[in-house]
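ENTRY TYPE: paired fold submission
RECORD: A
CONTENT: sequence, then structure tokens
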Amino acid sequence: LTQTAVNFLFKFLVIGSAGTGKSCLLHQFIENKFKQDSNHTIGVEFGSRVVNVGGKTVKLQIWDTAGQERFRSVTRSYYRGAAGALLVYDITSRETYNSLTNWLTDARTLASPNIIIILCGNKKDLDADREVTFLEASRFAQENELMFLETSALTGENVEEAFLKCARTILNKIESGELDPERMGSGIQYGDTSLRQLRQPRSAAAQTRPQCNC
């Protein structure tokens, strides 16, 4: 079978405090199963998956960053040129929720002011131990212009949807002209050369059109 040509490559980040389940979310999205023996990420881990979004084939290149403070300087260097991010907190830990503002500031300052971010309240399966209400988090998301979902890396609930929702928003912004994949640091690349050429003939044609001196 011939491999489908990839239309776009998007660089994604998974950010948030230690212990929120970032690596488990990534593992669930890529492997479709729960990662049992998850230790704290040291520095940065990487995963990728090709998805179909709005009829386009998109390869998501996902950097899973360490949440521990001592790795902050290492992980910050990976923010540059990210098109999208999952900002993760643990619904059973008020502390991880309270630190969201710092993570958000980092992402918007270091990655790009236009980075598309989806807030993920992870560990939805532990609803009985909840410390952060859905309403409170959804208000925070609204105030900061974020999309919002509650996820469970354990059951897989909303995990795929979180990544796809983020990718779909980026794609819509490319199609509406709000995001330019040609711009340095956009976190977006054309996957297939033929697509690049699709954009060129129009401007080339405009240049070669004979001038009318009537």
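RECORD: B
CONTENT: sequence, then structure tokens
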Amino acid sequence: MNKPLMAKATAVWLIDNTMLTFKQIGDFCGLHELEVQGIADGDVAAGVKGFDPVANNQLDPKEIEKGEADPLYSLRLKFNPAAVGEEKRRGPRYTPLSKRQDRPASILWLVKFHPELSDGQISKLVGTTKPTIQSIRERTHWNISNIQPIDPVALGLCKQSELDAAVQKAAKARAAAGELMSDDERRKLVSTEQSLEMEAEPKMPSAIAGLETFTLTGDDDDKKDDELPDADSFFNLPDSDEDEDEDDQR
């Protein structure tokens, strides 16, 4: 639902000049009912001057009359032909000043643990520029030696659902390109919940020479029982030279 301009100021005017309920005013202005009550009590929006929605061509007087007559009636914003076709401006995510210093740490985390994400995806997630991302990828950032990777979700720069959506999108793009992925890369391309539920796949150590040719089922299984050495053969040792000499003397 569209909201009027200067929502809190409009709510102040409606509270002072109409008999509408707090819920009706809140629904029209896009505010919570308790917030409207706080405005009426003077705890919220103190000092805000009322903004007349009727004089500013946002609300028809008949809507106020219908709302005062029926507490369940929902006010309708006046149609403005000039606003038809307008869309919200698209651009990089706005990052508060208090969190902008944390962006390099979150960029380094995304570059390190999710290298499949493109610069455009990282830019949308943390609200940064592509040159900054490139400088951190190439480790040419002026403060790269002091930057520690930190999860952007933990820093409050993006939501976990947004990060998971970007990772899933990167997974589909990589699968469409036909690129092979290792086990570690495949775990990074799924959501956090799915990654935790996956079982670890057995791996053979590659540091031991000759282990790559080792198999659990060797040639011994193919040998027949008659080819195995007899146990008695281990005890039938040949006579030594000393035993032969003793026999001669006798």
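NOTES ON RECORD B: The chain has two domains: 7-83, 90-199. Confidence is low (pLDDT under 50) at residues 85-89.
STATUS: closed
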